[in-house]
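Loading example: each entry is read as two labelled lines plus one structure line.
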Amino acid sequence: MTAGTGASGAAGPAGSPADRAAVLADAARAGDRRALARLLTAVENHTPLAEHALRRLYPQAGHAHLVGITGPPGAGKSTLVAALIAELRARGRTVAVVAVDPSSPITGGALLGDRVRMQSYAADDGVFIRSMASRGHAGGLAATSTTAAVVFDAAGFDVVLLETVGTGQSEVEVAAAADTTVVLEAPEMGDEVQAIKAGLLEVADIVVVNKGDRPGAQRTAAQLRAMLSGGGEHSRSKRPEILVATAVTGEGVPELLAALDRHRAAATLGEAPAARRARAAAQVRAVLVERLWDRLAGPVLAEVTAQTLDAVARHDTDPYAAADALLAALARQELPQEAS
Amino acid sequence: MTAGTGASGAAGPAGSPADRAAVLADAARAGDRRALARLLTAVENHTPLAEHALRRLYPQAGHAHLVGITGPPGAGKSTLVAALIAELRARGRTVAVVAVDPSSPITGGALLGDRVRMQSYAADDGVFIRSMASRGHAGGLAATSTTAAVVFDAAGFDVVLLETVGTGQSEVEVAAAADTTVVLEAPEMGDEVQAIKAGLLEVADIVVVNKGDRPGAQRTAAQLRAMLSGGGEHSRSKRPEILVATAVTGEGVPELLAALDRHRAAATLGEAPAARRARAAAQVRAVLVERLWDRLAGPVLAEVTAQTLDAVARHDTDPYAAADALLAALARQELPQEAS
């Protein structure tokens, strides 16, 4: 398709990006973990190889259960994820994790050390954990992480966990884009956390009060149940199930897995579950934006685009007039291609 | 322009959305605070009125100094903003604040009470404070908040402060989109905050170590200076100035204002400062995405769009093929309009 992207793409066993993508995609599906890791890197960097690979993998995906796990800092997300992995593995199910790191917006390096804990699963082929920087992703963090989930899904993992810290609009969207969204709470957290919690509850399908061995846990769960079962001033689209667990000891984790399975069974009764349609829309939208921006920055339109953006920066024109001018330029460019 | 959007738009003193927008925009520029508040609501809700008003206001804007203020929870952002307002007012400069609240992603209500403090300026026409929910904004939170800043700019405010909590990719982008970005730190914060800080430093033009009366403040500032002046492993695009302040007493705030003025003078030496070009691009991009999505959801293409997204949700097609199909449908729709 995209012929000649560089000298190395001319010949050899690797061939074109499409050929190399096909080889990698098939290897990942056959269980090659290095191929899987390379595909995930390509997805994160939005390379042409990623597009070719995803086109091949997408029809194979759609079978995994995507589970979002979020909560305020200190609620114990990593510990719960580790406990869920152990529970899933004990039942013979495979699991992949996309862990979004609150990392540098520019260099994008992972800064928290708590992923290290999960490396105890390095020898288990039924577990794959991938950290993903939360730095700017074209089309949004949620679109990139659900695309990574598609790769795991096509590679045959039964469950894909999307883990993010619940502070930040983009970060919450990642967990909310899953089939089932788990919000983790802990008893007795500070005031600033209370505000975060209230926002998070609205995206929850299941709320887990973690650290269930602490005095306030049952009371916190009772308060949440009272709060969420009441009529309330705004109509809730979701009425989450409330569980108590102690991730460190594993207590309550089998019950969480049962709740996840129940939610999934209920959600897939309809033909195209709302979460899947929303994910599809977000993914298509991300590609649309990238396509448009690529064309605007491409050889034909780069100069017009730069001049238009400069005029907006100087306040000589407004963003609406500029956008309409660029859309008209794109439409004119489109004609010869579409007319044939 | 957009004739007949409803029965109420047919006649009367208010007239078309364009007419009403013109009346509101001119009133806001003349100092009418209720008109200003209504325009800001329209911007946040992406109404047709907002577009008409912005088209009128955009050419009048470009004179205010946009200052982003961010930092980890507990660093003292609201206190510093209050101190900066007092300092600016003492010098006869007017100031507007766009404060992004870490609020509910769905109902969008402001949940933190610390805005209340700022209501002491309610009687001062030279100060305007506006809380904005951080819930999903079409085109992104940064685009919406810089558009709100355009309204304040056109209304004649000398300085516009964009205040956000520094946890979350979208939230950091808001502050990073300003002409000058201030990152607030405090001595002796926890480990989790250290990680947040490291990411924030990369968007900083000025770093303020707040709570300067505490023992560790000067040491924290010295460490930051050593860290940021070193070569480092990655080349820094910015080399921020480090200040120490005590926002509660106002100590160091005149020096911060002097640093802000210096940074602005340096940044405007070139013809189109990088921050302004980046903001223009983000604003145009947000409009482009909205325009496309509106057309795809419009009467002509709604059915094709829904079918295409359903096919992606069922994994019968992939997001790339779907995006290309929708772009082709858009291009065909464009032809009759462009050919005339």
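The CA atoms of residues 312 and 319 of chain B lie 6 Å apart.
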